[in-house]
Amino acid sequence: MIPASINALLKTPALARTFRTTADWIDLEWWALNASLIHAAQFSRGALLDVGCGDKPHEHIFRPYVDSYVGVEYDTTFSATKASTHDRKADVLYDGLTLPFEDRSFDTVLSVQVLEHTPNPFELFAEMARVLRDKGTLILTVPFSGRLHEEPHDYLRFTPHIMRELCKRNGLKVKEIRARGGFWSVLGHKLNSYLGFRVLRMGGLVQALGKVSQEAPMTAAPRLWTLPVVAPTMVAIAGSARVLDRHLPDPTEMLGLLLIAERDDAASAL
Predict the structure, then answer these.
(1) What is the pLDDT of residue 270?
(2) pLDDT value at position 8?
(3) pLDDT digits (tens, 9 = 90+) for 111-128
(4) Where are the domains of the chain?
(5) How far is CA 259 from the centre of its chain?
């Protein structure tokens, strides 16, 4: 449980924003993911479907580019997440097998860190391609390296090569595959995740800030006495990882991938 004094601070909007901004900067995965989505948003348009939307944490990035924003979630797993308790949530729930929309219904399909959480990722990818209109855009992010999360529904990690193959199978043309983070961000994120969740035990606090809402509610009391040592260490790790990724890159290591693909009319007709 979060101490009452911390809860009171989080109810102050300016302080809550400061805490959230700091947490996002330390969280190398979130930082890299957010940067990727800001880049990808320029390719979105028209009617957008967010597959596995949670509490729609990325809607504000895409709203300036699209006419409508519809979120869909798998009803069984969504009900076990923190996001299901929020006011902002999915517009449509479905059975996890067939998206409840007609063929070619959306100009843009967005899916952020979802494929790893289904035991049938190839089928879900095909469903996203099915509801995409001609010349429509698929914007998809997947992990390459990361801790177990949303257990037991954490099944897979992905490479650039399988993403190209999935596009080929489903009549999509790859416009861009972009790595998120590098070797040092992978190391830094693992270290900071351990310090944050295992040492400081800040899971409940970051959920109160609106982060990791896709996971079950975290109720362990934070170890605030570790904060004077853990917090500056995490800041140093996050800063160092960014610098080292820039100057000592390794193209074979990454936190995850951003895929931007377009429905290819010629391929779809085959």
Answers:
(1) 46
(2) 59
(3) 999 999 999 999 999 999
(4) 4-25+184-247, 39-182+252-268
(5) 13
Percent of the chain whose pLDDT exceeds 90? 69
Token digits of residue 250: 């390794």
The letter for the amino acid at 194 is Y
Instruction: Report the DSSP beta bridge partners of residue 174.
Output: 261
Stated pTM of the model? 0.88
Q: What is the homologous superfamily of the domain 39-182+252-268 according to CATH?
A: Vaccinia Virus protein VP39 (3.40.50.150)
Residue with tokens 């040092």: 184
